[in-house]
Structures are given as structure tokens and as C-alpha cells.
Amino acid sequence: MEQTLPLLADANFHLTTAEEFLAEQMHENARRELDKAQDALNELREHYRSLDEEGQGLLAQMARPLSAKAKRLSARLPRTRVISKAEAEHDPDQEIEPEE
């Protein structure tokens, strides 16, 4: 459990920071903080497997609210738009005639 508490604190810190960024409409910063929180939660999931049954139950109780908060905050982020079609840029080097 030594490894568990710092990871929980790390995830909570990043989620709180993401929430503050969302309140200020700073979506990219919030997205980065959510990614960091998700990394910490993923590490907790890996650590979960190495714990005994009692440790797993305790970790699940502590991590479940953080995971739910991460999902709620992620849902508040605007969708990222991806450009699927783009026109080719003009390249002046393509118009130069080869030297003879």
C-alpha cells in the first residue's frame, strides 16, 4: 500500500487541477491534467493486481470516486475536431525547371 497513497494523491491533484482549468474554460490544459490523472489511475489498476483481497477492496473504495470524477470531467471537455480533408499547399520549389 506504500505505492497506493501517492498515486491516489497524484490522481486527485490532477483531477482537481483539471476541474479548475475547466471552470476557467482552459480546455487544453484541462485535457493534459486529465491525461496525467488517467496515467495515475492506470498505474493504480496495475498495482491492484499485486494486492491481497483486503488491499484490493480498500484500493477499490478509494479509487472508485476518482475514476468517476475523471469520467465526469472528460465528458465536460469539448470534442476535438479533426480535419479529414485539406488542400495541398503550394510549394514554389515544384515549379522550378531543372537546369540543363
Give a verbal description of the structure.
There is one protein chain. This protein is mainly α. Helix 1 packs parallel to helix 3 and helix 2 packs antiparallel against helix 3. The longest helix is centred in the middle third of the chain and has 24 residues.
Structural class: mainly alpha
How many domains make up the 3D coordinates?
1
Q: Which geometry do the CA atoms define?
A: elongated
Proportion of residues in helical segments:
55-70%
Q: What would you report as the Rg, rounded to the nearest angstrom?
A: 22 Å
Mean pLDDT: 88
Succession of helices and strands: HHH
What is the distance, rounded to the nearest whole angstrom, between the alpha carbons of the first and last residues?
Answer: 74 Å
- In DSSP terms, counting alpha (H) and pi (I) runs of 4 or more, how many helices? 3
Keywords:
100 residues, mainly alpha, elongated, 3 helices
Task: Describe the secondary-structure layout.
Elements lengths: L3 H20 L3 H22 L4 H24 L24
Helix pairs in contact: 1-2, 1-3, 2-3
Concise description?
This protein is mostly helical and 100 residues long. The chain has 3 helices and no strands.
